[in-house]
Amino acid sequence: MRAAVQLETGQDKLEVLDDVEAVGFGPGKVRLRIRAAGLCHSDLSAMSGVLPQPAPFVPGHEGAGDVVEVGDGVTHVRPGDRVLLCWLPACGGCASCRRGQGRLCLAGFMNSGTPNFRRHDTDVFGFAGTGAFAEEVVVGAGCAVPIPDDVPYEIAALIGCGVTTGLGAALDTARVAAGSSVAVIGCGGVGISAVQGARVSGAARIVAVDPVASRREAALRFGATEAVAPEGLADTRARITGGEGFDYVFEAVGKSATARSAYEATRRGGTLCVVGAGAMDDHFQVNMFELFFDEKKILPSLYGGGDVLRAYERAIALWRAGRVDLEGLITHRVPLAHINDAVDQMRTGEALRTWITM
Predict the structure, then answer these.
(1) Measured at the alpha carbon of residue 255, what is the angle toward residues 298 and 267, in degrees to the nearest 5?
(2) What's the Cα-to-Cα distance from 297 to each of 59, 247, 268, rounded to whole Å?
(3) Quick one: pLDDT band at residue 311, thresholds 50, 70, 90?
(4) Are 105 and 91 in contact (CB under 8 A)?
(5) How distant, in Å, are the alpha carbons of 25, 186, 351 from that of 22?
(6) What are the phi and psi torsion angles at 60 (to 5°)?
């Protein structure tokens, strides 16, 4: 079958190969036919080595498709069911799961160390234990989440990561209050979803911050009250908040420099919510005096910071009600054979989400 493979960490381009085999099917596993997959910036971070991922590997963790077959013990789906990929499934029995923090369950991370594919005699991994840039993939049963028939594959795939992450950061992690002021730094798919989450929460002022003009324009369509380039953030903060700072600032880039800018844009007693996935050697620093004196809350948000399955259901309900725009996040579509066009679109900031069709 065909799959897009990163042969070595650091390579700029993916290789679309037709001799890759999905492996690992057995008890507790599900074989899926991928119908649509989205390119997330985390995929690029894994390709470059910013996020740890064994190579060779098949990127892609935003995906949706149909169940082809199920292994022994799998009862929640059956062949023919439509599902989305959950790249961080909860085991349901560990300490984190018992505390209601299934997003912190390590079982999902363990999946990334088990090969999902094989090419000739070489193991090939799936990014984050999935690997959606392939015609088929074998995953653990918890990765296959049923979706209603009225939810298009593209929408379902997006809910599987970017939308859940951004909406959840605003609704679950930061819990944006009605009437508040918000800034979102980084307006790709996750950042735009955070903008929509802030709007749904009733924020009065939402400032989108991004260096790419087209993304700033897009943010206004999704609910931002204004949009500025990074160099304009300080003046906007002074004008809107009287220099006090925003009630909530979301960092959706994953770099210490932008996290520091976000911290400085947050008012005393306000909330900085860190959503972007960054490198292990990129350190965010605050001094002990400002940490004590400013009493700013620093809240990391992993996968939206809430119950993932409930977050999926909420996203679908908000989409059905017209409260969030998910179709508009899909700015480009390319076939798997041209996946490197999608990579270029994400690197330049041209795309919010490019969808890969199989």
Answers:
(1) 35
(2) 34, 10, 9
(3) very high
(4) yes
(5) 8, 35, 29
(6) 100, 120
